[in-house]
Design goal:
The protein is of the alpha/beta class and 684 residues long. The protein has 17 helices and 29 strands. Helices cover 30% and strands 19% of the residues. Helix 14 packs across helix 17.
Length: 684
């Protein structure tokens, strides 16, 4: 992946715009579109994402006239284009001619055309026809002056992440042959001596289709790996065609924090020139801005700390949640600038003009059904002006002294069936710890366990159920070198084959943590326990023995009174903490505060509760984002100039309720800007 400083990003402005679908509208509307885009400050639009049926209305018959005119019009008005390969959803004629391209669910049901992404990702027919389209589009528009970047497909795997058809079964067997080489190795990895599952021929193996009871867990895990790799193979195949024909950067939109559990984006990042992500708030969550921050920090981690592009979010309500709540005045702006605060160098939406027909006709847009004389469009214009004022931030990086280890394979593994408690989910402790950092004014990088942890003062390891030996050893080296780490319950339990690490839990981290758990004691639904420090917890307890660790808190009641629940182990020059239960939010905040103090991590700024603070740095300068999510004004001791208003502040910044300030700071000490900067973690 090319760094932002190495030509991966065209232009110098912060990108601002939306998906633009001119094919949905009469051409006389297009002139109004570009005029309104100029008014709003739009400088980049994604074009052609779902236009395969328009570009190739019949087998090998292409119609580029409408796209020629649309791109020419956009260029004439100074609006750049992120041009899609248009392969995101095949046209009906493909399924009619080749019904074997249609995907199947685990129960054998065919998923028919009529929605989108009705294709098997392993289908050689789909691959061949989609690449023919990429070749035609790229050949025609490689040198078009409007095209600034290329957009492969769209949200790969959003609706067809897993296919269980015979074509996929054959592809799965090929993938397994390459992974294991021989059946003995596969049988050992899958533990097929259990339940008489031993395979004597590759042809006996299928995807984990609907079965009488629990399917083999390692078979399930490998199928999830295979499925991610098949979607990635489509990205790589399209990229190869593009790189042969075009010079502009290539990207695709990930779905980090927006339903992308089934795709291992850490492995995908090397296949794009710049990382792009789609994010949508969960309308039912009154604290949805915390989920936004989590997704943005994770996206930045996938990007290796480099700036990234927000390819899609919404101006207001979406159409696909049970209750599609509209955004309140100012929320569009706060959401967008929060993404910029956490590393986005571009802010795009779905979509430019709200559709009149189709499944997404009630999805908000920059231009609503009611037209430009609306709350939404007024906020759109204000945001466009403010992003122009923030252009100097382009290429800067986010300050983060804390790392949270995140692994998609651990996510897949922990949420397989037949486990101790259905209440143990992967993102639960991840979100809880990240939320505690957010409330403390501390920013974290969400990184893969194989990441070089040098330079981080604190590392958090939530529910890392599956871990490889090398990654477990890396955390041990980090702690022994002077770092502080926290590991939560149900971490380090299995290896990459989902085999239990014997000798007592938490397996891979047992020696580092100076503890040994002999048995899990998950709690019943609604059951709570109290710790002797006054904390409360639920979901999980375990019979833990310290083997060198200091006991910081024990259970006061429940199934294990007197048994340790929170420990700290001095290891080398650092310390490794363990929490063996699901602490409530207040106790989690207190625990994180203790960890931050021990690790010497300071907040970006001292801020009142509910006020988000994040710092970006670059070229010897720093910028502090202050986002007030409350209904009260907030004061902070900050010195500098607010880029959004031009006002100076000398140690006293007032941010009104629901407002945002972006301060070019004066007199802020230089700090760590990115992972791998070479700064060793401080000893505590």
């Amino acid at each position: 992946m090319r760094d932002a400083q190495d030509g991966g990003w065209p232009g110098e402005a912060i990108f601002y715009g939306a998906d633009y679908n001119p094919e949905q509208w009469p051409e006389e509307v297009w002139a109004e579109d570009v005029a309104l885009m100029r008014r709003a400050g739009v400088n980049l639009v994604s074009v052609g994402i779902f236009s395969w049926a328009q570009l190739e209305p019949a087998f090998d018959r292409y119609d580029f006239g409408w796209l020629d005119r649309a791109l020419d019009l956009l260029h004439a008005h100074g609006i750049g284009v992120d041009l899609a390969t248009a392969t995101a959803s095949p046209p009906p004629w493909l399924a009619r001619a080749y019904p074997e391209t249609l995907p199947r669910r685990a129960d054998g049901a065919i998923l028919w055309p009529g929605g989108r992404q009705a294709y098997c990702p392993s289908s050689p027919v789909f691959r061949r026809r989609s690449l023919a389209l990429v070749e035609a589009v790229a050949t025609r528009y490689a040198a078009h002056p409007a095209v600034l970047m290329w957009h492969v497909s769209n949200e790969l795997g959003c609706h067809n992440a897993h296919c269980y058809c015979d074509v996929s079964a054959a592809a799965f067997r090929r993938w397994l042959r390459e992974r294991y080489r021989d059946l003995d190795a596969l049988n050992a990895a899958w533990g097929t001596t259990f339940w008489s599952q031993r395979y004597g021929d590759w042809a006996e193996i299928n995807p984990p289709r609907a079965a009488p009871t629990f399917a083999n867990p390692t078979q399930q895990l490998d199928f999830l790996r295979f499925s991610s790799d098949e979607q990635r193979a489509q990205l790589r195949a399209e990229r190869r065609v593009l790189k042969r024909l075009v010079r502009q950067p290539v990207t695709t939109n990930f779905m980090i924090g927006a339903g992308g559990k089934h795709l291992d984006y850490h492995s995908w990042a090397a296949d794009v020139d710049l990382v792009a992500n789609d994010h949508y708030l969960t309308a039912a969550d009154p604290q949805a801005h915390l989920g936004l921050a989590l997704a943005a920090d994770h996206t930045r981690g996938v990007a290796g700390g480099a700036p990234w592009l927000l390819m899609e979010h919404s101006t207001s309500a979406v159409n696909w949640q049970p209750r599609n709540v509209a955004k309140t005045p100012g929320q569009l702006r706060r959401n967008s600038l929060a993404h910029v605060a956490r590393g986005a160098d571009g802010v795009l939406f779905f979509q430019w003009r709200a559709s009149r027909a189709g499944a997404e006709k009630f999805h908000s847009a920059l231009v609503p059904h009611a037209g430009p004389e609306t709350k939404v469009f007024r906020e759109v214009c204000r945001l466009g002006a403010e992003l122009r004022a923030l252009a100097e931030l382009r290429g800067s990086r986010v300050d983060a002294d804390v790392a949270i280890l995140v692994d998609y394979e651990a996510w897949w593994g922990v949420e397989l069936d037949s486990h101790p408690s259905v209440d143990v989910t992967y993102t639960d402790r991840l979100a809880a710890l990240h939320g505690a950092l957010w409330r403390a004014g501390v920013t974290a990088d969400l990184v893969h366990p194989s990441t070089d942890l040098t330079g981080y003062r604190l590392v958090l390891v939530p529910t890392l159920y599956l871990v490889r030996d090398a990654d477990a050893e890396a955390l041990t080296r980090y702690v022994h070198g002077g770092g502080t780490a926290l590991v939560t319950y149900f971490s380090g339990i299995v290896d990459e084959h989902d085999h239990i690490r014997l000798g007592g839990y938490p397996g891979a981290y047992r020696d580092l943590l100076g503890i040994r758990t002999e048995e899990f004691f998950p709690l019943r639904a609604g059951e709570r326990v109290t710790l002797d420090d006054g904390s409360t917890a639920d979901v999980w307890t375990e019979w833990l023995h310290p083997t060198g660790a200091q006991v910081l808190a024990s259970y006061a009641d429940g199934p294990l009174p007197g048994v340790p629940a929170l420990t700290r182990h001095a290891a080398g020059a650092g310390a490794a903490w363990y929490v063996g239960t699901r602490l409530d939010d207040a106790a989690t905040d207190r625990l994180v505060a203790r960890l931050l103090a021990e690790a010497g991590v300071r907040p970006a700024a001292d801020a009142p509760p509910g006020v988000e603070v994040v710092r970006r740095r670059g070229d010897g300068r720093s910028w502090l984002f202050v986002i007030n999510h409350t209904d009260r004004p907030a004061r902070l001791a900050v010195t500098g100039t607010d880029l959004l208003t031009g006002a100076d502040c000398a140690g006293d910044l007032l941010v009104k309720a629901g407002e945002v300030a972006v301060i070019r700071e004066a007199g802020v000490e230089e700090g760590r800007c990115s992972p791998g900067s070479g700064r060793a973690p401080s000893s505590s």
